Each structure stands twice: as structure tokens, then as C-alpha cells.
Amino acid sequence: VFPSLAQAQASVANEVYQELGQPSIFLFCPTEYCSSLCSPSPSQSCYLQTIGQELLPGIGVIWTGPKVVSQELSAELLEEVEDVLRRRPVIWDNLYANDYDCRRVFLGPYMGRAPGLMSRLHGLLLNPNCELQANFIPIHTLGTWFRSELGSCAHPDHAGMEGALGDSQGAQDGSYSPQEALELALRDWVAEINQQALEPGK
Fold first, then answer.
1. What is the DSSP letter of 68?
2. In-domain check, residue 81
3. CA-CA distance, 46 to 26, in Å (whole number)?
4. From CA 141, how far away is CA 128, in angstroms rounded?
5. 163 inside domain
6. Vertex 133 angle, CA 128 and 138, to 5°
7. Are residues 62 and 130 part of one domain?
8. Are residues 42 and 126 in the same domain?
9. How many domains does the chain have?
10. Which end of the chain has the smaller Cβ count within 10 Å, N or C?
């Protein structure tokens, strides 16, 4: 019926989207959802070109970055993806995912994401550790990164960020510092642990 997989997927996704009344959030995960799965590259992928052309503009498209688990996300890559998809991508961030190796737990700060990425994104989903309580630092530092991104968008000169991030140097110049975000998260996590220890029955 369809000349290509991409056209088949776009047709089905469009029909479901319209049948549901074109909801404000409707996400499509393409078969080529990261650069390493594209042939030969995102911008030259016939599959992604078709998805970008055929998929209705209200449908969000998920992207994980250069790889399935991407250590870095650059503005240049997101610009390339936005151009071929004809929309800003929704980042499905697997930085902390450990469902593929449950012997590992990731406790470091949110990092490796270039400043100013917010303007290139339609949204961001964080795929966390499978162990719930191991995600305090990842989610806390993601929040700090997000506040710094919002502050950079609202204040291009980075003024006024002290209140959002504290009195550290990184906060003063409006930039995100993974180390400072980690220290903030650890401080709050220790306070949370101490509070739980004082609860009856703990």
C-alpha cells in the first residue's frame, strides 16, 4: 500500500492523531531516533526527510541525540534535526537510563548539554535509573539546568539568576555548572535523608 516505511508510519500516525482530536501533546518515535541510526546522516536520511514532510506539524518527534545514550547534545545537531524534521525535536534523554544494564546506577549531575538548548527543543523527557531513589540527583540537577536555561532565555545578559541558583559563581554569571548543581543536590538530598530518618518508624 505504501511506497516506504516512513510514509506508512506517517500515514498511521496522522490518522490516529486526527481521530483523537489533534491533542496538544502527541509524540511520535521514529525508527531512526538518533544520528547513529541514520543513513548516512540525519540531514541526508530519506526516512527522516519523508517523516518531516508527511507528518502533521502538530505531532512531536522524539530524538535521543547522536546515540541512543548520548553523552553530549549540541546546538548544531539539534539544528540539523530541526531542519530535516521541519519541527523542533522532543529530546528523549537516556543519560541516566540503566534498564539495559541493571548493575549500573548513575548518580552524577545533569551535564553534556550545550547552553541555550531550550530554544532548540519542543520538549525534554528524562529516562531515569530504574531505582526510584537513585534519581534524586539526576532530577534535582536537571531542574537546576532547566532554571538556568529559562533564565538565559529571559535574561540574555544573564542578570538576575542569583535568586534561582544561589550565590555561587556559576549562578552569578547565569551559566549552568554541573559541579555546583551537584553540590546543591547533595545538600538537599542529605536534608531529605535526615528528615526521613526522624520520621516515626524509620
1. S
2. yes
3. 23
4. 13
5. no
6. 45
7. no
8. no
9. 2
10. N
| Per-residue pLDDT tens digits for 115-155 | 889 889 999 999 999 999 899 999 999 999 999 998 876 65
Cell of 44: 541526508
Distance CA 116, CA 132 (A): 29
Domain stop point among 94, 115, 132: 94
Of the candidates 98, 135, 93, 139, the residue with the CA atom closest to the CA atom of residue 117:
93
The position carrying cell 554541573 is 178
Residue 193 lies in a domain: yes
Ordered DSSP codes for 13-43: HHHHHHHTT--S--EE--S--BGGGSSS-TT
Which helix or strand (DSSP H or E) is residue 75 part of?
A: helix 75-85
Instruction: Write out pLDDT tens, residues 84-119.
Output: 999 999 999 999 999 999 899 999 999 999 888 988
CA gap 186, 148 in Å, rounded: 18
Which among 163, 185, 184, 183 is positioned nearest to 174, based on CA atoms? Answer: 163
Instruction: Give per-residue pLDDT as tens, 32-79.
Output: 999 999 989 999 999 999 999 999 999 999 999 999 999 999 999 999
Both 121 and 59 in one domain: the answer is no
Domain extent, residue 6, equals 1-94
In whole angstroms, what is the distance from residue 103 CA to residue 53 CA?
A: 42
Which amino acid, one-letter code, is at 109?
Answer: P
Query: Within this chain, do residues 55 and 112 fall inside the same structural domain, yes or no?
Result: no
Pick left, alpha or beta for residue 140 (phi over 0 → left; psi -120 to 50 → alpha; otherwise beta).
alpha
Block residue for cell numbers 545537531: 77
Which residue, 94, 114, 130, sits at the end of a domain? 94
